[in-house]
Amino acid sequence: LNSGPHRILFPENGKYAYVMNELTNNICVYDLDHDRRGVPTFHLKQTITTLPNHYMMPSAACCMVFSPNQHHLFCSNAGENTVAFYDISPEDGTLTVKNILPISGDYPIDVEILPDSGHMVCINHDSNSLTFFRLHYDNDTLVMDGLPIRQDLPNDCIIVKLPDRKSVV
Hints:
By secondary structure, the protein is mainly beta. It contains one helix and 13 strands. The protein has one helix at 165-168; strands at residues 5-9, 16-21, 26-34, 40-49, 60-66, 72-78, 82-88, 95-102, 108-113, 119-124, 129-136, 141-144, 149-150. Strands 9, 10, 11, 12 and 13 form a five-stranded antiparallel β-sheet that branches.
């Protein structure tokens, strides 16, 4: 109730749905079934926070994205100015919090994983910046990689991998 569903993601296997709730700062994981007509049915199996236990100020879950191999999920939190890092269980699709880390910017409205799978960009609306991080999946951390790039009121980001120049010729 009053959770503010903001984003929904479906993994390639089509078995689950991940719903990010902006107002309650949580992600709901659903089993996804289809009847014989193809109509989907959602069965709630997990609700997990996007914030650390100690956080008491207002915050809003803003963006949610899979790692390219869909083994991890990332969610940005404006107000707290962090990114939550989760492992996705290959057995049942549930999430395990690996870490919740600061992003060195204000109001991270969007995050995207770069095509190399090893870097992430945070789009920080209120600090007018883009911050870049190296992803360390082995020890569940993000490490800032370079200086922020200034951009007036950034709001959204789409990362597209371009074809190799050799294959275009």
